[in-house]
Description:
- By secondary structure, the protein is mostly helical.
- It has one domain (2-183).
- The chain is built from nine helices and no strands.
Amino acid sequence: MEWLDPRYIIETLGAFAYVGLFLIIFAESGLFFGFFLPGDSLLLTAGLFAYEGSLSLWILIPSLFVAAILGDNVGYWFGRKTGPPLFTREESFLFKPRNLKAAHDFYEKHGGKTIILARFMPFIRTFAPIVAGAVEMNYRSFMIYNVVGAALWAIGVTVAGYVLGSIFPPEVLDRYFTLIVVIVIVLSVAPTGWHLWQENGDAILAKIGLKKKAPTAE
């Protein structure tokens, strides 16, 4: 699906790249139909383009940061206005109840910090603010988590792309672009994955008949 390829998207947007990137990050951050958009890889690629000089990092950072915050806000207020009936809404082409349920279960488990952790989890990140609004999470607390999460994700991943551009020569980036993007995305998800493992490792291992190894006394 070429239209979801981050390079293709940015190159196609051309002079409207900043507006397009803003709208895509905004939509994926809190509009329930934005769950399929390539947020992580798009941020990373935007950073690479910034290093190459096609885009300005100093325009990308504030605009993508604001887009991420506003997107989550819209998702929160949509969930707040819709309320619990949202969870019984019928499936449609743009609305997948299973994604909403996954976000709800994640929120029930991790509380407010879900808004930060979910930034690095595709699908969950789109529905997390909607769930937070539906369960009437305190708005001030939500905004704190929202701003922190937006900074870590929108700014952090974009800057990571810029740094990658300074590390790898152009011919390497061209040849191994997809692989490099996948590796960086995996690394960005790793802290969230480790946190979840620390909290849920015992339950996961118990399901497959194993146990976490107890620490040995020195």
